[in-house]
Specification:
The structure is a homotetramer. Chain A is α/β, with parallel strands linked by helices. Chain A has a domain at about 5-170: NAD(P)-binding Rossmann-like Domain (Rossmann fold). Chain A is about 45% helix and about 15% strand. The first copy, chain A, has 16 helices and twelve strands. In chain A, strands 3-2-1-4-5-6 form a six-stranded parallel beta sheet, sandwiched between helices. In chain A, strands 7, 8, 9, 10, 11 and 12 form a six-stranded antiparallel beta sheet that branches. The longest helix of chain A is centred in the N-terminal third of the chain and has 25 residues, at about 115-140. Chain A is globular and about 55 Å long. The N and C termini of chain A lie far apart (about 40 Å). The interface of A and B includes residues 374, 385, 414, 415 and 418 of A. Chains A, B, C, D: Keywords: Cobalt, Glycosidase, Hydrolase, Iron, Manganese, Metal-binding, NAD, Nickel. Chains A, B, C, D: Belongs to the glycosyl hydrolase 4 family. Chains A, B, C, D: This is Diacetylchitobiose-6-phosphate hydrolase. Chains A, B, C, D: Pfam families: Glyco_hydro_4 (PF02056), Glyco_hydro_4C (PF11975).
Amino acid sequence: MAKLPIKLAIIGGGSSYTPELVEGVLKRREQLPVSEIHFVDVEAGLEKLEIIAALTRRMIAKAGADITVTASLDRRAAIAGADFVMTQFRVGGLQARARDERIPLKYDVIGQETTGPGGFAKALRTIPVILDICKDIEELAPDAWMLNFTNPAGLVTEAVLKYTKVKAIGLCNVPVSMKMMIAAMMDCEPDELSLECAGLNHLVWAHRAWLNGKDVTAEVLQKVGDGAGYTMKNIAEEPWDPDFLNALGAIPCPYHRYFYQPDAMLAEEKATAQTEGTRAEQVMKTEQELFDLYRDETLAEKPAQLENRGGAYYSDASLNLVDAIYNDRKTVHVVNVRNNGTISALPDAAVIECSAVVGSWGAKPITVGSLSPAVLGLISQVKAYEQLTVEAAVHGNYNQGLMALANNPLVPDIHRAKAILDDILRENHDYLPQFHAG
Amino acid sequence: MAKLPIKLAIIGGGSSYTPELVEGVLKRREQLPVSEIHFVDVEAGLEKLEIIAALTRRMIAKAGADITVTASLDRRAAIAGADFVMTQFRVGGLQARARDERIPLKYDVIGQETTGPGGFAKALRTIPVILDICKDIEELAPDAWMLNFTNPAGLVTEAVLKYTKVKAIGLCNVPVSMKMMIAAMMDCEPDELSLECAGLNHLVWAHRAWLNGKDVTAEVLQKVGDGAGYTMKNIAEEPWDPDFLNALGAIPCPYHRYFYQPDAMLAEEKATAQTEGTRAEQVMKTEQELFDLYRDETLAEKPAQLENRGGAYYSDASLNLVDAIYNDRKTVHVVNVRNNGTISALPDAAVIECSAVVGSWGAKPITVGSLSPAVLGLISQVKAYEQLTVEAAVHGNYNQGLMALANNPLVPDIHRAKAILDDILRENHDYLPQFHAG
Amino acid sequence: MAKLPIKLAIIGGGSSYTPELVEGVLKRREQLPVSEIHFVDVEAGLEKLEIIAALTRRMIAKAGADITVTASLDRRAAIAGADFVMTQFRVGGLQARARDERIPLKYDVIGQETTGPGGFAKALRTIPVILDICKDIEELAPDAWMLNFTNPAGLVTEAVLKYTKVKAIGLCNVPVSMKMMIAAMMDCEPDELSLECAGLNHLVWAHRAWLNGKDVTAEVLQKVGDGAGYTMKNIAEEPWDPDFLNALGAIPCPYHRYFYQPDAMLAEEKATAQTEGTRAEQVMKTEQELFDLYRDETLAEKPAQLENRGGAYYSDASLNLVDAIYNDRKTVHVVNVRNNGTISALPDAAVIECSAVVGSWGAKPITVGSLSPAVLGLISQVKAYEQLTVEAAVHGNYNQGLMALANNPLVPDIHRAKAILDDILRENHDYLPQFHAG
Amino acid sequence: MAKLPIKLAIIGGGSSYTPELVEGVLKRREQLPVSEIHFVDVEAGLEKLEIIAALTRRMIAKAGADITVTASLDRRAAIAGADFVMTQFRVGGLQARARDERIPLKYDVIGQETTGPGGFAKALRTIPVILDICKDIEELAPDAWMLNFTNPAGLVTEAVLKYTKVKAIGLCNVPVSMKMMIAAMMDCEPDELSLECAGLNHLVWAHRAWLNGKDVTAEVLQKVGDGAGYTMKNIAEEPWDPDFLNALGAIPCPYHRYFYQPDAMLAEEKATAQTEGTRAEQVMKTEQELFDLYRDETLAEKPAQLENRGGAYYSDASLNLVDAIYNDRKTVHVVNVRNNGTISALPDAAVIECSAVVGSWGAKPITVGSLSPAVLGLISQVKAYEQLTVEAAVHGNYNQGLMALANNPLVPDIHRAKAILDDILRENHDYLPQFHAG
């Protein structure tokens, strides 16, 4: 790869997020000589794919860059010879997501895209597809790095690292958003701030925050408890109890609200589902509006409205990672990688989300060691759920699926777990061939 | 100790269970030469203590045994020179237990004596007292074995083993009851059946059941799923879902219903609390009736009514342990001991409940190694709760108390955790000096 | 198996030890209803096999027992339907052993049958053969227990448990000999003594010795240091330094002399090799004499001279294990089993030698947890050697063979390691097909 | 500390290496605003201390820098308010080192300053002194970073981190020298090369070498095996066997020769000791010559002859670390830190040498996880030796000292271990008060 021009393959290229990614590529032309971008998507997304490709070409032309853009349904052509394969697809589209959100609510259980039963359903649909993609990478681009954004990103990356030989790193915009929000609270530059992050995807804590060599964790916790803006576009801004934060002693991520404050989160979800619709149902409208904008042949840049979509820093997170690998930066990023002992109590083969040193050697996690019981119980419980989900998704195993949901802390009772599982299997029938084999 | 006559010190001797213990001593006269039993209790329990002592003397006389019985409020005298110290006391009595059961119900949370917030409250009251007892043992009977029955038995034993030098083993009648119930299902003698038990107190699974060298786990699970009698006097007999048991692949203990089926258990508790009263409130009546019987000077044996009290096999569990230690039997018992690596994912200093080889060397656990994620998540979560509870109880630390409840899987939301904690601290004020020190 | 008559398959039945095994079977007729013994051996051992079979039949007849004895070269027939398969064969015979002993001596390295390069060479020859045997067991007697005596017993058992599905337990007469010698020192019955044993085969320590509930470890160490008889027939009785034993704080096994006192052991070996010959060369004579005795058609019992051969308690160790499994005794034996976390610092898949509870559930090790650095360094070093040897033996891998010897603490320099490895590969050429494949 | 001027305290300031350190400080004036250097030494080193201070002042003047230089015997004054405390002292001076080298040779054991019994003796002398220094730091400069160069650096740092609250990082010039030598072999800039280093001090491997995103480990090993210059000034350049390196699969450090090739190393040491004298005896002459140069009042820079002394890159290693911490660089350095799970098989509290991310948060090790058995045996054995040595040194415990030497792989027999220990204790009597207390 060394200093040769870069080919990017974007699986799920028809995503409404793509223009941000393209903007990120153009911003980094000095350090990242991208020569080719190949967007690929499935038949059903063809129209969107073509809109995105056209907008991309206009953006490149406006920037005066020299990048070949291809858009096709031919995944193997996209992958062949790629240096980085970025996966951001959504099996079943927003319709499937809406179902993921609605099913649990029937049983008074959090209905959310990535955590709880919603994330479980998404994992069942996604994992068989990504393992297929990996077969292509193993054959056609064995040295490529896969950067996986597809949610639930930790779980999906664990399936890839357990069942394929692909060099994969899972990525999420939550840790970088945490850094931005905390820097804003502390009135400092993000780069002045160092966070010791470790946990699982959408269940990551900053165990310590450093500012200019000083441990400012307690100060940050106080600001969050005092009501400092600390959430993301797609999560209800439920305030945090200051006493709880003080007792916790670590900075939770915005998604922790689902685990620590399910009463309020569930009430909010149920109320919203009856009025504005679930998050997916809302996003469908936003998407429609975005693609209406993207179609405009005079548009040659990322429209401001994309910010409302919810994926803040998505482009920075992914392209900074490409930069760190390509240019061997050895900079610290928070990524999803094989645990390998980083968090002592979790299995070696578990994927965790943690601070890691990223360079041409990939992402090497920074040792965490023993975690406090204040966080270790939850992380162990959720990791057990994740392991069981990976096995259920790969092997189409009902029992492991049932145990997965029974172990998810958002599902309080095995009877509800079973009812939800049965609904998920029935309503996603066409996307779950692994459960119907043989 | 070797082959010398045995002195037993019974802390909380005024318990209504005591006659069963005495019966057990008398049944084992051949192998266990008990020469002295010293019952001790607190001032408030003096009347009961004397009733028990008188009944005990009548039972001994009837049996023609030669055992000195002392009943006093002098704990140090009881402990001095004891070979076995049995702890079965209840700080705050049944009134405190009734509060432990009622407080969580206000917040739609399981209200139970040993699991959930009820067990947490009991631990806060009990641990300071048992650490005091241990100081006496360290001074007055350093070679004695403490057999701890005081609930929550795992947690309390963990506090003893972390904070004192006393040789302690925690004991519970659940595992022996499981064995009896499974033997009944399988229509075999209990001794023909071997269970590989491991977990935590009141959260223990038989991971495998063997009958005559054959693994009969699946068969047992099917019988339990088909509705075989599988519960204990003090737990609602909520039926088990056969599919869930099959997926679990391990035999849960009756108390697992609180964790796996909280919906039904909570509904039952709430209903009962409004009609017959909570379990403690019911037991108060039973206790009254038992002590009325015990007072009868013609009674010289354990009355049959004691069976309704709920502590089946209590006497067998404890005296078989005394026998195994005293006579160096090297027999397998399920006890609460320091983990020391037995279950790989838990800390060395955690107390676990597992099969162990008991002899004059104490209780040596049988290796368990890596547990399946199907059980490991729950066990890790509950152990985190237990560790935090021990620290909260020993140091009177509010933050660790809050994190303990926030990590208890029966408490679904931190706001409820905090409300319950505040209620517990307020309603148990006089029993929690550690929270008011300094 | 339950209570049905027992078929024993003895692989390597032509061994001079076999009469002791037969005597053990006859002694245990009450509790072990053996109905069939099938001895099997290789072509080269046919004459010895027939001598043994004839003697066995005379012993059975004299005892009035009803046991069918078969002797054949048909391994599959021996294994088919066996309940216990006992492996006690020696690939290459005593000639190969003599080479194992002589090669290292050329380089001033301990030349011994089971430890050091001698044991390494034996493992290379043995492992391919035992894996073949295991294939037969998997096919023809999948429920049988393999009791493996073939040295190096730990290493060989590790290969079996890693690479086959056979239910195998490794066994050695060292731990039972230690118990007998220590009981003699302490002037007690062996059964009164409890040893907490853990380590590796021929590298096992009794970490604590208990007599009637008292920890007598220090007393035993003092007696060993004072010169109490503490060795086995085949090991030079080099005295132990009392200060060292006191510092060690655990009772070493007789074979530890090779690791702790190689100066004296090497000097003794070199001297003996020049006069009486190596141990193998001495044993050849003993064997000759034994078989001369066995041939005598009037002999119908184990001759007393067998005791000089060196395998004391061999029969007791193996048949007590058969008894424990068959009759579900749940008694404590020291065996070679999968670690599975028993000794925390070693890999789960490593085979260790430790106290275990043996019953119809097999051998369940008793937890050891963290070992003192005083023993952990050596055990880790030797286990690394063993792991590498298993891989070298299974895959015929030169590099792993070289690293195995380079990691063996008895081989002080990599140049000597390489020279010894090359000699071993050359001199055992015909027995090491795995190194010549493809 | 943030951006304030820096005070350095140099314990053992009279070392002949100091001018290199001063040169390093002057080279980094832009990024490291050192305002004060306080050299401290013991009475016996006063003359050297003053020579060094005078030379330092001339160097600073020549550079036109504004740095206050103090030289005193007042350790507390040096430490008070320091930002960095650098420890580079030598208890007993070169005379003691010469004894450390000579004693083992009497018993045909490697006599070397840092590994084997020589390093053990040095640790016994050094640890009580450094713990005293730490008491001063805890009191007078609790936020200071201690950078410890005093050998055996890993062992000594382990004692500091186990027994004090000082923020300490151990440092050695071996890893940076390895990087320089490998970069020379590969004909690349050191910065283009990434080494994944992990092990113990003077027992560290580069497990993988990366050049521009390519794994070049095998290529480096081939070059080392082909005879590429790969040693340091103070170690005999014994060539490496190419087959061994290939089998090892990791790049050893120059000091590994003592463990892998003791035959040749010992022969060389014995020969040299009889001719030129031991390394210490040679250094005494070099030192004399250096101080003769330093005395020259016209000298105002580090003389070229210092290079022969052996501490190449010593200044870069330490000042780059100061820079990384002070300027929060988050760059990767190889340092000695608390293991905390980095290498799974070693205890959390062990100090290891490994790649770490250094910034204002200190040094955070990069996860290593499970090491191959090819290196794990040796590392475990040496770590056991180190743990025992720390305990022996801190508590003056003979037994742990004996077990330490008995576990050192360079000491092949316990009788030699004991003889060497007794010699060391006798010949260092005045430096080992901890062995004579009470």
